[in-house]
Amino acid sequence: MDSSLQQRRGGLVSLSPSQTPRSSDKSVRDLRSGDSNSSSKHEKDKGVNVQVILRCRPLSEDEARIHTPVVITCNENRREVCAVQNIANKQIDRTFLFDKVFGPSSQQKELFDLAVSPIVNEVLEGYNCTIFAYGQTGTGKTYTMEGGARKKNGEFPSDAGVIPRSVKQIFDILEAQNAEYSMKVTFLELYNEEITDLLAPEETSKFIVDDKTKKPIALMEDGKGGVFVRGLEEEIVTTANEIYKILERGSAKRRTAETLLNKQSSRSHSIFSITIHIKECTPEGEEMIKCGKLNLVDLAGSENISRSGAREGRAREAGEINKSLLTLGRVINALVEHSGHVPYRDSKLTRLLRDSLGGKTKTCIIATISPSVHCLEETLSTLDYAHRAKNIKNKPEINQKMMKSAVIKDLYSEIDRLKQGS
Ligand SMILES: Nc1ncnc2c1ncn2[C@@H]1O[C@H](COP(=O)(O)OP(=O)(O)OP(=O)(O)O)[C@@H](O)[C@H]1O
């Protein structure tokens, strides 16, 4: 790996998905070939719809044992999901069409290969991509994103989810290409409109957990329409195993904080981001840096707060969670209805993910549902929501490649700035 591409840990770290290595405009060059240039220009002009994938989990063992009625049928070939409703003794079927449908027997590998693997390839081509998991609590968001078992005996578990599989694919491709690259990851949790750094060293996280007066990590405007998370830890990673360890550490921290603060994972959002810089050479022998970013987002449970047992003491918590999810819904509505004002600024979640909703990022939403009759109301609301989100158009753009010399110059000036404590 080119050590000159190594980036610092901590400090001022941008989470804006549109952020590419900084440089003076003069040194930024777009090296896209004529063909891809015109096709991406075409994409840019027309806009590309957010891709929406629907996954229905199987009945749990308990549900199956008590013969819970199933009200969902998935037709993967036709990309359709049908929900059967019984209103006043009349059976009403509602059918929804998605970009891809994965039924209860679908395996993690299948979902990854068909839906996520092409997105990971686009990150390596220099796009920023975001994958959201959206759905009611207990429908398989975390199972889909992280997966079941951890790595055992060095073997890759068959129920590994989207995150470890993406990491594996990224490293497999870069290694097969013998590429020179640098990679960094961030992992944060958004709970109650407060950001926790899941990768911060122990002392810092303890401080945050123990001392509630400590100001949470701040989300700052970067003055260019994006945001950055001040002080968010960036870990440089060189192997897939390092990322798996980081993921385990972050998830463990999430669980510890949950216990200490009596939180519930279903009420928090987590964002795991991987940024990759890859060195390329122009035909003239000039070294250029290509940058791509993948955001993997596990959203809080989408169920109606009033039904999930929120009571007075939890009002703020419920209200705030509601605020992020409600704002996400409002942003989606505003984008779909082309209403002038899109309320990105109304919640931290939508500020953080602004570029993924109507911006230059390629976005995919994995909506998860349960097949059980007892979840039907929430399932219909998820189906409606996800179906609506299909109409959001983004204008994906490949990040501009930068001259390596300019990237290094930028990094040196940033080191100077940090040394001066500015
Ligand atoms: N497709 C699936 N195949 C097999 N088991 C699944 C599947 N989806 C979910 N499960 C199981 O269902 C349970 C609930 O899943 P999970 O915890 O991922 O839900 P969630 O939507 O992330 O919930 P929360 O919002 O509370 O975090 C877990 O035991 C998980 O292993």
Describe this structure in words.
The protein has 422 residues and is α+β, with helices and mostly antiparallel strands. It has a single domain, classed as Kinesin motor domain (Kinesin), CATH 3.40.850.10. Helices cover 34% and strands 25% of the residues. Strands 2, 4, 8, 9, 10, 11, 14, 15, 16, 17 and 19 form an eleven-stranded mixed sheet that branches. Strands 1-13-12 form a three-stranded antiparallel sheet. It has a three-stranded antiparallel sheet with strand order 5-6-7, with helices on one face. Helix 3 crosses helix 5. The radius of gyration is 22 Å and the shape is globular. The chain starts with 11 loop residues before the first strand and ends with a helix. The structure holds adenosine-5'-triphosphate (ATP). Adenosine-5'-triphosphate binds next to helix 4.
Mean pLDDT: 79
In the CATH hierarchy, the third-tier topology is known as Kinesin
Q: What is the helix fraction of residues, given as a range? A: 25-40%
Rounded to the nearest angstrom, the distance between the terminal CA atoms is 30 Å
Please give the CATH class. Answer: Alpha Beta
How many structural domains does the protein architecture include?
1
Biased composition (Basic and acidic residues): 23-33
Region (Disordered): 1-46
Keywords: ATP-binding, Cytoplasm, Cytoskeleton, Microtubule, Motor protein, Nucleotide-binding
GO molecular function: ATP binding; microtubule binding; plus-end-directed microtubule motor activity
